[in-house]
TrEMBL record:
Tree of life domain: Eukaryota
Name of the protein this chain belongs to: Uncharacterized protein
Length: 404
């Protein structure tokens, strides 16, 4: 992808926007861009520099993302709405063409990393609540104040706040003697941010412990998410690359598969409630370490059909009117509202699953399910809004109650 129209190759120490931003290390990448930790020489702060591929369709997409990000930052002067903030944007000419660049506030690891570091065991419910409150604050802002649908909410797109500067000694610019050294040694010099470091050390210890346990060296392992104690769990919604104004929806097929709402599969029109569906899937995943729905195609049925079947097994039957009401309904349902190709469903419920499979205490399971179930309404307009969810008692329960 590092060719004409593709990614811009960045070397550590490269400068952008007439020398204002200096690349420090790579933070990540997506289909459209690479993202770099950069030092802002004007403010002496670290930022995330998102450098878009240069082909016209990517430039177009970046313009759209910048429009959305600008609305987000303009209406949140106090930076309290839990959505990533745009610092600046500019164009950068390189050998592969002209690249749109977005300067974003620098954030930490995604909550997907958090789930991984926790060995896919699910986080303590106190932390799940904290993260849920942040996500809902962000969604309420996007939906109610701005009229924006995110359309790709998932653990990967929720980043923790990075509390500590990555390094007191940023790489200032090229060329300096530093240039002579390899990228690998430079990477080693730039201290990773505190949360990342802490988590990695603890994950390493946890893994060592499991290995020891397997060898029979020690007995019961401590509850895994003790590993994450003492970390402040504030986070922000990122990746507005697929976001749209609710009155101008762009794509028909939105959302990452596992977080996709039923109305998107059925093509019966969508709005803000699709984000609420993805939010509930994300909350479940945080609490259990496993995806709520992980559909797979099978013999004689598609991934979509498996997905709808999984939804019904856990949430109950889709009301006939809704099942047959979408442009694609005929592909999946007969006129009675039964799936054509998957006939026998094994019905369960969220709270039963939490107890049986994930070993939740009865009360915890019931209360968490009471929070989630209304959001998983098959009728999008009956789902609570982010604002309504924020008022739900489950989010405001005394912490002591949930300590096992
Ligand atoms: P794309 O639209 O190309 O998918 P994203 O906005 O999802 O790009 O960013 C790609 C990756 O870069 C993210 O998954 C994350 O790892 C990293 N990243 C993005 N924004 C930030 C940020 N503000 N701070 C730190 N890392 C970020
Ligand atoms: Mg992305």
């Amino acid at each position: 992808s590092y060719r004409k129209g593709g990614y811009h190759a960045v070397r550590i120490g490269d400068s952008f926007a007439s020398g204002r931003f200096i690349a420090q290390r790579k933070l990540g990448w997506g289909q459209f861009s690479t993202v770099w930790l950069a030092y802002d020489t004007q403010t002496s702060k670290y930022v995330a520099l998102k450098i878009q591929k240069s082909a016209p369709e990517f430039v177009q997409a970046a313009l759209h993302e910048i429009e959305i990000l600008s609305a987000i930052v303009e209406n949140d002067p106090k930076n309290e709405k839990c959505v990533v903030q745009l610092v600046d944007h500019f164009k950068h000419r390189g050998p592969n063409g002209q690249h749109s660049c977005m300067v974003l506030e620098f954030l930490g690891d995604s909550i997907l990393h958090l789930i991984r570091y926790n060995r896919y065991k699910g986080l303590n419910l106190i932390k799940v609540r904290e993260i849920c409150r942040c996500i809902l604050t962000g969604l309420d802002y996007l939906h109610r104040e701005l009229g924006i649908i995110h359309t790709d909410l998932k653990p990967e797109n929720i980043l923790l706040l990075s509390t500590i500067n990555p390094s007191k000694d940023p790489i200032r610019s090229r060329p300096t003697p530093i240039l002579e050294r390899s990228e690998a040694s430079l990477k080693g010099e730039v201290a990773v941010n505190a949360i990342e470091k802490k988590l990695k050390q603890r994950a390493k210890r946890a893994v060592a412990k499991i290995a020891a346990e397997r060898r029979g060296a020690i007995g019961a392992v401590a509850k895994p998410d003790r590993c994450l104690d003492g970390i402040d769990f504030r986070c922000k919604i990122v990746d507005l690359g697929n976001a749209c104004w609710a009155n101008k929806p762009i794509a028909e097929e939105i959302q990452t598969r596992q977080y996709r709402a039923p109305e998107v599969i059925l093509q019966s029109g969508y709005s803000f409630p699709v984000d609420m569906w993805s939010f509930a899937c994300t909350a479940f995943e945080l609490a259990t370490g496993e995806m709520m729905f992980a559909p797979k195609p099978g013999q004689g049925f598609s991934e979509d059909e498996d997905h709808l079947a999984l939804m019904m097994e856990l949430l109950g039957k889709i009301p006939r009117k809704i099942a047959i009401g979408g442009l694609r309904s005929k592909d999946y349902f007969d006129r009675h509202g039964d799936l054509k190709r998957i006939r026998r469903l094994k019905y369960s419920s969220i709270s039963r699953l939490l107890v049986d499979k994930f070993k939740f205490q009865e009360t915890d399971a019931r209360e968490f399910a009471e929070f989630l179930n209304p959001i998983f309404d098959f009728a999008p307009d009956k789902r609570p809004t982010a604002q309504q969810c924020l008022r739900h008692p489950w989010l405001h329960q005394a912490a002591a109650k949930t300590v096992a």
